[in-house]
Amino acid sequence: EVQLVESGGGLVQPGRSLRLSCTASGFTFGDYAMNWVRQAPGKGLEWVGFIRRETYGGTTEYGASVEGRFTISRDDSKSIAYLQMNSLKTEDTAFYYCSRGTPYYYETSGYQYWGQGTLVTVSS
Amino acid sequence: EIVLTQSPGTLSLSPGERASLSCRASQSVSNKYLAWYQQKPGQAPRLLIYGASSRATGIPDRFSGSGSGTDYTLIISRLEPEDFAVYSCQQYGTLPLTFGGGTKVEIK
Questions:
Q1: Sign of CA dihedral B70, A91, A17, A115
Q2: Cα–Cα distance for residue pair A103/A116, rounded to 1 Å
Q3: Distance from A18 to chain B by nearest Cα, in Å?
């Protein structure tokens, strides 16, 4: 059974940093891209970015609102994807979900598997 | 970026009725790479449809998707009590990937 578990959320002050983790099990982690999607309370879904599998160099893509501040990385030996969030703003307050992506260079079939999400609150 | 506009914002229907949800893109969605998700309060999204019309694993056949180019539709043929939720579309054919704002299907 595919399982994704996010951790690392919490309350953080504006301008500070936070790192989220997504621990995967039930599949060969290194064979898939991993995605991050966020959702501000009461709002719609927003794509944050993804990291491709190492076959494709582990390259990353980001949404405009986080480009340059957020970094996605992965540790295939531990089956963990990370979201490093720097220079946090109040508008980054959201539930952050990880999801399993595609084994290919580009996404081909939507996000079948999701974690339960972790809440990040950016406030002074 | 491709902006996805969903309508209506809220759909008030009774169980057993048919629901029709629209997702309109600001430009053509590449390869019909359009997905639909269902989300209930406190839960992660659930993939319903991908590739505009393919049902995801375990999704009942009362859910169907159609469309091409810039116009896509999700149909729920007969609403069951568990179908009242928020539905979001996503295009994954062009970077950056984008989601629509969602349609809430509520009990009338």
A1: negative
A2: 22
A3: 22
pLDDT per position as a tens digit, B20-71: 999 999 999 999 999 999 999 999 999 999 999 999 999 999 999 999 999 9
* DSSP per-residue letters across B14-51: -TT--EEEEEEESSPPGGG-EEEEEE-TTS--EEEEET
Of B62, B80, B73, the C-alpha closest to B32 is B73
A–B CB contacts, 8 A cutoff, strictly below: 62
Three-state SS at B83: helix
Residue B88, strand partner residues: B37
Cβ contact A64–B95 (<8 Å) = no
Q: Give the tens place of pLDDT for each residue, A61-107.
A: 999 999 999 999 999 999 999 999 999 999 999 999 999 999 998 88
CB atoms under 10 Å from CB of B17, counted, come to 14
